[in-house]
Amino acid sequence: MPLPTNNIVSQLSTVHVHPDKPEEACGVFAVYSPTDDVATLTYFGLYALQHRGQESAGIATFDHGSINVHKDMGLVSQVFDEDVLQRLPGQWAVGHTRYSTTGSSRVANAQPAIVSTRLGEMALAHNGNVVNASKLREELLERNHTLLTTTDTEVIALLMADAVNDGKGWIEAAIDACERCQGAFSLAIATPEGILAIRDPNGIRPLVFGYFGDHDPQNGPGQYAVASETCGLDIVNAHYIRDVQPGELLWISETGVKSLQWAQPERRLCIFEMVYFARPDSVYHGESLYSYRKRLGNILAKESPADVDLIMPVPDSGIPAAIGFAEASGIPYAEGLIKNRYVGRTFIQPTQMMREAGIRIKLNPLRDVLEGKRILLVDDSIVRGTTSRKIVKALRDAGATEIHMRISSPPVTHPCFYGIDTDSQDQLIAATKSVQDIEAQIGVDTLAYLSWQGMLAATQQDTTTFCSACFTGDYPVEIPEMFKRSKLMLEKTPVKA
């Protein structure tokens, strides 16, 4: 049975059906190592990427050309144990941890997607969202394909299988399939001959690769890993080489690594990966995201100062920006909320009476820190506002005399179509309310967001190389009208300040 939707920053009282944060993308991991236990390496890689999806997990290994697969609903540690991993021998593997963006939460939709071809079976893991998947799916049905899932991942896999069955090799078939897909896709594909790592031309979702062991990959074939984030490489002690580039394909096999630029790159990395989704210890542009998020706090303090006694974060996502705000403002930093990090997705939901009483499952305020204090609360985003309102009430109940809130990103006014599960536009609080209205609704004394310009400037990169559509409505890949209407109801004119 599918597990309930997870909230990264949960509400104080209960688990809502509708999250108050954008839900994660998916995590992909692949490893090529003929001399190692690739299933266990993949397990740990997925464990490090668990924050990107908690619905289901799967691993496929290739053992001298024969595939072994295990996937199920649940967290990585729930789906796999030592007995399962021992039944997955092989020389290379691909794994996936999923949060559904296209396709419902059920075991049939768990990845990797497995399809058969004239060259043998293949296993495909996907992070992103193919916006023309409905049209491609109709074409596959017209060609008498039987689709076993409701995911765009299966669509990509079947397109590739068709190309293989028409006489193409693995590389040519992958390029053929990718050229027909529009949207975001970072792919790890295991075949009987090796591993493919592919990124869409915009590079909307991240993908990195590295090597491990004592062998220098510059001197011939070695041991390699591919992951959604560098934290997935770190956990298996793999050395980061570089990002898979937008529009690039890597072929990893017994001959080493081959790179092909299959499409003209036009980089548009999702800025929300840097603001919130990716782990703070993952490296982007040569530095940890912890450093970038601290810089967001520095800029936020300059843009929207406040006369308060202490700066505190909403744990854990608000911590780096709160530290940065405190550093820039000279106001002391303190933890006023303690998070119970052992409450997982299977936690028993409280009764209605408990919810009404405000039982504090995940976040508990520290009265002796808060009482009589004017506090500034820092978080990375507000999506629906329900969690923020509950947190503010709990802080006032604990004795805070003033509560000012600062958000280290601009107002989220538009839904994402590229692999992040945000609400439809009418459910996004900033799409329907002004900052002053949100301020009143969540019950703070003042509220301010980081500017769009400040968020991008903090990257210290070319600001045109990011997708910030959730803040601006400027989508880098055209969205089919029917797909667009499913979420984009208001067409609110974005405000970039």
UniProtKB/TrEMBL annotation:
Keywords: 4Fe-4S, Glutamine amidotransferase, Glycosyltransferase, Iron, Iron-sulfur, Magnesium, Metal-binding, Purine biosynthesis, Transferase. Mg(2+) binds at residues 317, 379-380. It is an enzyme of class 2 (transferase). Pfam families: GATase_6 (PF13522), Pribosyltran (PF00156). Binds 1 Mg(2+) ion per subunit. Residues 26-255 form the Glutamine amidotransferase type-2 domain. Catalyzes the formation of phosphoribosylamine from phosphoribosylpyrophosphate (PRPP) and glutamine. PANTHER family: AMIDOPHOSPHORIBOSYLTRANSFERASE (PTHR11907). This is Amidophosphoribosyltransferase. It comes from Adonisia turfae CCMR0082. The gene is purF.
